[in-house]
Protein 1
Amino acid sequence: MPLDRFNPLLKTNDLVQDLKWDLEFRARFESDENDVLDEYPLSDAERQAIRDRDFRGLHEMGLHPYLLSQLARLIYGTGEKAGTSGAATALIRSLLGDDYDAYMAERSG
Amino acid sequence: MATISLAVAASHTPGLTGWFDKAPESDRDTVQRAYDAIHDEVAAADLDALLIIGNDHVANTRVSEPWDFSFGLTDRHPGPDEWFKPWLRVADYDLRGAPEIAKTLFESVRECGPNVRGVRENLRFDDNVSVPVTMAGLTSLDVPIIPILQNCTVPPVPDERVCYDFGKALGRAIVEDLPADARIGLLGSGGLSHEPGGPRYLEIDEKFDRWYMDLLVQGDHDRILAEATFERMEEAGSGGTAELLSWTVVMGAIGPRPCTDLGYVAVDQWRCGVGAVRWDV
């Protein structure tokens, strides 16, 4: 259950909120992601997970699932592409890990 | 006594406006007919205000700040919020509010149990308001809107009984505390099954959705509350299906009665079961 790991005090929750609410901050994230991550009061583990696009790790640290999906859109883009979005695909791939290929094969079969 | 002149509920998945054309034609037709029916109902109801009750997708508060319901008290409600525009692809709107009615209702229910707040700045709207407003053509009707944004997904989530009781308090406030000639509509916005940000993000629990819609059509609210619990919604899709708690608020406000199923579709590309209902009021 995605809500079972949720930790409201995890700072990445606030990062995603600030990125959504602040256009200039969001633009800086798009152009200088590393600087933004270094400046924001995150743990080293959070920074590394974001840089690695480790959505599963962020989920396990306590990022709310809504904000997890929004972080994926902040990184991969919010426009929908053919089939499914790059953001949704990247998120599912990370969450399912080694099970991803089998899961997608089963869905398309 | 004022009257509740309209009670409907409908899904607001962003695919309905952002990528509507990815669905098969028959499914698009079903959804369009459902929302057209809502448009027609709103147009015919001659409302003084339409309350849109929908999940706040953590757009207006920090997840560390506890809250349950937010009343939009402003005289205008512009949207959608900037960040959601590429996602939703709807025309910008600037909805007329109903601040006096909103204030009266907020004051009447603020002490009813859950954490209720009145917001005097513009709330940020995403699909919760933008999709029903656009799909039902509400901007052209110029009906005054009162948004009541609800926490359906940040623990501790007010469960089905808290939401139903909040709805009862809201319904009582509408009937007893508003001017005698006021005509109020209710629109529950959200659901059906989906799991945003979870491993089942691409899935829809069609079996749950159809079961839930059938329960509502039957109209036995005791049974709905006993069986369609927050936990059961979470099982059908964690973090998303519980948006149906907004439909629960509407049911609490109007009391036990059957409804008409306006249509249901399960389209994988939309990543959410889509349904709509209209209650007999």
Protein 2
Amino acid sequence: MTAPHLLGLVGALVTLITLFELLRRRHLREKYAVTWSFVALATVVVAVWPATLDWFAELVGVAVPANLLFFLASMLLLVVSIQYSYELGRLEDRTRTLAEEVALLRLELADHRAASGAEVDPLAPRTGEDVPGQ
Amino acid sequence: MSSTSAGVPPTPSDPGRRVLVIMPAWNEEGSVGSTITELRDLHPDVDVLVVDDGSGDGTAEAALAAGALVCQLPFNLGVGGAMRTGYRYAVRHGYDVAVQVDADGQHDPRYLDLLLQGLDRADVVIGARFAGEGDYRARGPRRWAMVLLAWTLSRVTKVPLTDVTSGFRASNARATKVFAEHYPAEYLGDTVESLVIASRMGCSVVQVPVGMRVRAAGQASQTPAKAAIYLFRAMLALFLSLVRKWPSVEDTTAEVTV
């Protein structure tokens, strides 16, 4: 086994162990872990049996097998980035909806408090509240 | 104060109609109070809801002191987010008309009746500059963007529109329901895209000419580079709003959930 292959193997194993630990501590959700586990396992395969990469490179017509590796890696990162953008947008939408609801509920709470006769300032910061701009 | 409103007929608004003025405000401490006071003096029968868009100054206090209903967003969402909050309030509290008025005093409340009269003809009424009234001017890329947006929106709505980026607008209960669920938050969404949505979901749009004033406090950003970016982003926003999918009106006219 040559040095680069050993490097790949070590990298893949570290990735797998990290993923396993994060999952075990419930810091990582399964849907993301699946992708990365697949990548790490593929890396193990290529590191242990380098001929796999050569065979695949020849199959798709790439002269230098390492270039195929770079291409696949960059494509994977691109896809993952797009997926993250999508998730981020969805989260932003939901955060926005929640913020709007919070604002309306604050107003309603103030109305109810005023109606019940309590002496309240509807703008007074309440305990544990995030005050904008401070 | 401007002298442009001399020709506005002093017709009182329909007494049976409940009108909510929604005023999105972000750090408008200096002008929101006088804007509300002026509005309430001229139209004592309308309710004013100030949506404080995460201001860091005393905007909410000033609005409350001036007698408005105040609802505070926990952080800044932009005009689109603030307006959707207001439209939701309008739907939940059964208002017949929702009117958007800027907190900076640009929108002359004397034109409010003109906007409300327009609702006899359409679901959404835009108070438009460049339509004969007032002397608002824009130049360069900003001007081109406005012309392009107006031309395209006129095709979409099938009504001649000259100022689609005006935030001074009124909507009836039907359009308010659409906005309460689908008012967009992205760039130019609060003006251009919202009109596309309303139109494509079956609401009619008209404009009435209004004069606008210079803002009472704060300032607009105007440099050549910013104007060019404005043109580019306006075109992108317009394109996206035209190709996006919108749900059918049947999905919306029920209850505001999300």
Protein 3
Amino acid sequence: MSILYDEGQQAIATESRRVLEARVNKDELLPLLETTGRYHDGFWTTAKEQGWTALALPEAYGGLDLGLIELGLIAHQAGRSLSGAPFLTSSFGAAKAIELYGSEEQKAKYLPGLASGETIGAVAFASGASALPAAPAVTLADNRLDGTATGVSGGLAADIAVVFANSSGTPALVIAELAGARRNTIDSFDNSRLFADLVFQATPAETLVAGDAARDAALHVLALQAVITAHEQAGGAEVMMEIARDYAVTRKAFGQPIGAFQSIKHRIAELYGHVELARANCIHAASREGQADFVTAAAAARLSATEAYDTASRDCVQIHGGMGVTWELGLHLHTRRARSLAIEQGNLFFWEDVLVDRLTGEAA
Amino acid sequence: MSNLEAYRAKAAAWLESMVPTFGKEARKGLSVEEDLAVGRKYQRAKFDAGYAGINWPTEFGGQGLGHLEKVTFDTEEMKHGFPSFYFGISLGMPIPVLMQFGSDKEFVKERVLKALKGEEIWCQLFSEPAGGSDLAGLRTRAEADGNGWKINGQKIWTSWAQYCDYGVIVVRTDPNVVKHKGLTYFWVDMKAPGVTVRPIKLVGGDSHVNEVFFDDVKITDDHRMSPVGGGFAVAIATLMIERYVATDSAGFGPHLDLFVDLAKEVELNGKPAIEDGRIRQQIARNFAMRSGLQSITARAMAMMQAGMTPGPEGSLNKLVAVRSRQKLSELAIDLQGSGGFGYDDHASQKEDWTSSWINAPTGRIAGGSDETLLNTIAEKILGLPQDHRPDKGVPFNQIPA
Ligand SMILES: Cc1cc2nc3c(=O)[nH]c(=O)nc-3n(C[C@H](O)[C@H](O)[C@H](O)COP(=O)(O)OP(=O)(O)OC[C@H]3O[C@@H](n4cnc5c(N)ncnc54)[C@H](O)[C@@H]3O)c2cc1C
């Protein structure tokens, strides 16, 4: 796949940006932080209407048969607009897990709903600090799940979850309907991500992959999600850089725009470096889907995008002085999102280890 | 196979065949002068094989091919450590500028051919003790002298000047106007009476840069390559030439693979260092940085191939890569602990951590310091305000020294 966007792809970027800028604004996003269980409805409705939920899924199941590149472009815009619903990543991850590893019946049963956006999917692999635990805390026996998956993004609203479980000592990737599970709400610094611990108690589940292949499958799904998240992070970092730049040319101190102080202007120039490296890694990773080095490329994208978004949101606030830390201005929406995205789909430690394992052939 | 891939394969095979004669091993232990002589032969071999002036017009002895072929060749060439650096500046800036701005076409053609064959070398005489980053702050002057000019003053940091035949030079011809309006661009004969070259020894032990003194050096007006007072524009054009050159995400230091090898060999707390989280983190971050730069470069190449103009993000290459090289080299030395003190000033910067480390600061200064690169990104790409410049609008001779 090409590393240059073609006309159709450019159009997806422009159109999704236009739509999101028209429909999502910070005054709707701020109240979401103050309660749990609410996401930005407008975003998800838009996503369904625009076919974004169907974009990267196969045509046979109601999808549009496009790929990571296209979905990445939308995620980039979603990151810019902070649109707030985690399902763009998590439903996609769940759908890909089913598409890649499920049976015909499983695909027919779940994919059309995920493609239309009527079904919301979540991916529940983590156990505490570990994104892909050696011994998953959730166990599978007789097609029933027991145990807790922690910090599941979108977990409060999801209908189904793809779970990484322990099936008498070997890993398994399974799918469970969440009607039969308990959700413990996490009151988070970024509530619109709908984080929950999912508590399974004899919850019925179907197996997608069992045995050692399940771990590779789970890592692959995480990598697909990581590429989408990285695009979202790169978009967030980019908009933070732009907001910082715009403020630096208008706000004056000591008789000149603050952007004339090198400590400010160099900081913004450094952000440009972070943003462009992250974007370059994202484009590269999306274009490597299906290739042997895909997970490596995904890890690199994730590392540089996390660094870009954290740095850009941190510096953008600093460049705004006192205004930067007001509730009203909303820059903290990005500060929060930068951190929540940094730990969704595996933190830096996780991806650093994955990357170095692959590069050096030496496990941590 | 695309045309470009075919070109790459052919170039790679040719380069491979040159290794026994011109590769690092063949040149071990040579003095700089001996090495330069080998370098000239290598440059001649390139010319004969059609790999000199790849993207230059055929009427000047070039190959008339595209930029992509040039970058492709350079990238392959970079893998072998051939003695091509002696001609890097010469063929990189002065000669292309001569082709563009030189008035006497016969003279230009002769010079270009000799330079392409490695028979003549040109240097770039811009920087001065008083004007490096602030190029327009230079003080070397040329005064009208009969039909020509007389140059007095001093240049510094002139790469390879001691081996050069000619140079391009920017000098002040009118101190009564604002600083960048009073400059004029010439070429000079480096062997002319009154030119003195004095090598400067750099931290790594080599002396490829020089001070160059001009004492009543007389040149005729046909040496002029810009309108009188219009030299700054040509100087900027010189710096803009070859915007897309072969880049190295390792910052022209050792490849990450070498660091991984070291981390596998060395022990930390009784275990291979590769198992240490701090080391793994640096490997991961370095890889992510390099893969980002490589992707930027790959995209620029793809855009050029598609007839588009690449974005400005290519300007990040030097800034990001050399800083990372500096840090990774420090870490590699740290990792060796008390085994890390050794230094061999003949070792290659691309293969030896100590050599890479001691020479890395050079890379962060030469061709524009980190700070001036950040200024360029901030001002030209992001539209941030220019720095406060107290000398703005002030005639040069009234700027307090
Ligand atoms: C190995 C080597 C080879 C070279 N080869 C050549 C050559 O062939 N021909 C040639 O003409 N020149 C050459 N140079 C010179 C090179 O271009 C200059 O050294 C460089 O532009 C910096 O100028 P300077 O050394 O005068 O440092 P200065 O300009 O004095 O800078 C000193 C410090 O001040 C900082 N600084 C300066 N201006 C600003 C600003 N506006 N904002 C923030 N910080 C600033 C710099 O970043 C630096 O940290 C070479 C240099 C080296 C090291």
Protein 4
Amino acid sequence: MYGPMFVIFVLSFQGPEGGLTFPMRGASLHWFRQLAEGLGTVDIGAAFLRSLMLGGVVMLFTVLLSVLAGLAFRKKLSGGNALFYVTVASLIMPSIIVSLGIGLQFRLLDGGLKWLLEAVGATTTLEEYGTALGLFTSALGAHLTWTLPFGLLIMFAVFNRFNPAYEEAARDLGATPWQTFRHVVLPLIGPSVVGIGMFGFTLSWDEIARTSQAIGDVNTLPLELQGLTSTVTTPAIYALGTVTTVVSFAVIGVTVGLAMLLGRQKKGRVG
Amino acid sequence: MSSTSTATAGPVADSPNRTLHAWWQAAPFTLVFVLFFLIPLALIVMVSFWDFNEYELLPAFTLRNYFAIFEGCSTLTEHGDFCVSLSTYLSTLKFSLLVWLITLVLGFAVAYFLAFHVRSSGMQTALFILCTVPFWTSNVIRMISWVPLLGRNGLVNQSLQGIGLIDQPIEWLLFSDFSVVLAFVHLYTMFMIVPIFNSMMRIDRSLLEAANDAGASGWQTLWNVIVPLCKTGIIIGSIFVITIVMGDFVTIGVMGGQQIASVGKIIQVQTSYLQFPLAAANAVILLAVVLMIIWGLTRLVDIRKEL
């Protein structure tokens, strides 16, 4: 599993005359420079930023919503079963179908909005109006249908091992629900919450299929990368691969570190 | 959070107030799935019956899209092949089945090794993490990383020629069924290993000793004790792998050199030509096929009970 990946890293440092395969012709950062300057019409830097921003927002929402839902599922939640099945269905639904559905939804929304604008006679707004498809509308939604099931399943695993005695103790001592959550529950589940954040970001960072029909006019980095595989035939594409991999690993490294830190704090407090 | 339900928390656990409270917490989560999952799915079904022209969608009720997909499928073509749609669906099914079989055997073997042959739990964790690390690299990158290996002048061909096994480069290594299946297996064996490993770790070791004491051979233990007890993991892994492969268009596109068709690819191409009703009809059919497979698999095990 590591072999092919390693080849990519090595080949991304090809000299300027090098091709897509071995043998290496010198070692340089040439292709990384090429990448920074942009590949033809494709603006890699902007796609990079977009992916980063989207990943961050997805991470935030995934953590917030999964923790809330996780808490809700611990109580008596009528209809919780149905919600659970929908969540699992979303996880195993072929991504292209979800993506197509969201794309359709927003296109129909566009149609409706344009009709509405025309009906009220707001012609200037109509002319400026492009589409409701976008990074933080349709694409965000598409990504959340992919990240939230993972978040919820992790929360299930966490609360299965969670001892409610701590909360009862806090309540007996007169803590409000918020105090109980803030000072007892959150520190205990902290490392897992960080884990959910990491899942959220990395799943969003690499996502292609769900984004493909739901993003509108712009592209995220993985989509650019996919497009480049059929057009670009220089090691610059390997350099791009190396860069995205480095970002993935950096995010994982930081979060694992954070989780360990939180875990240690917890141990210090309890023991 | 309201303070009304706090004072006497214990006895009122089931009061309507608390249920309402729980729903406020689950509401945002639910809203996301209603807005971005249930409504889109309903729209796909609706639009699949719509009509369209080059410029816009026309609300209507027509079966034209479904007929268009399977046009001419009642007879074989003059070359003795199936029509385009049917052969695409068949080839997608073929890939699913192949990849499922290979990942199942590989995943089971790896999970078995991790669960039963690695003695120390530290080593177990370390090896497990080693298996998951490549999972954190983008799929496309892991796919294209095969190109320098399998290409016409790639490492494999160069080595084989170097040691004199072949004279001509092997052409079917890249952009072929072989490379597609290889990439799938590389990408998704993880989805088999994790759930199977998870089930295996729950097996009570004394059962294995009991089987041993009762005189069962290694194979008998494997087949009669371990496999039935891992059924949940196997089914969950299978569902993941099959649904992913059925809907995939990226892997098949990249590793097939944009030459091999799949249902996902058809849907993608149709949407790029704004033929949304056609794409929707294809999506509905694909969904039906996938649901049938999942339904068949879940007949074998109750997933909710096992979580």
